[in-house]
Fold this protein.
Amino acid sequence: MLHRRSLTARAPGLLRRIQFGMVLLGALLVAAPAGAIGISEEEADVFAALLNHGLATETRLLVLSDQTTGDPAAVAAYEETAAAILADIGAPPELLTSWIRRNTIRATLDRTLQLERSYQLLSDEQRASLFDAAEPEAAWTAFYARYADSPGLLRVSRAGFDDRSDQALVYAEHQCGADCGSGRLVFLRHTPGQGWAVQDTALVWIVD
């Protein structure tokens, strides 16, 4: 059973800032500049393992931002607290260091992901157009009218890796409405012959 340890329980100001950002920007949280880089094959495999994990039977379509997130939850600003949380879920400290460094630049999801459901990529421009409504509720109504079979908008960060590249850390964000969403740090491990698998998660923020 996966644990749900909370970064915001130790840094409550973080949750207030993220909630404020959700209300103001809906699905448009961007914390790092977009770069002209793509993701590696290894990252694509990590993302597939993360997104396939725990898929609900009724989920038929995944809508995924085509750009990685950067660090929208300002985890780097709470590095000491985040390191303690990752220790709780068994993730080595070098994962956080690698994750912070790699997420100073956003990357494009330019490789095919081996997902168990159909998926559609959403560009920054498409997200801006969808969420340009003055009322967040109206924007989300438009989103679900277009993507009726999806559970919302998913965003992932770049992956941080340990020195042997058999452990990874990813920030995963699920936005499902004007007052619905969560962000988590996800710890994954690679096993020869079996591939990547989610080991544990730490809750960063939640709005419900």
The radius of gyration is 16 Å. The chain has seven helices and ten strands.
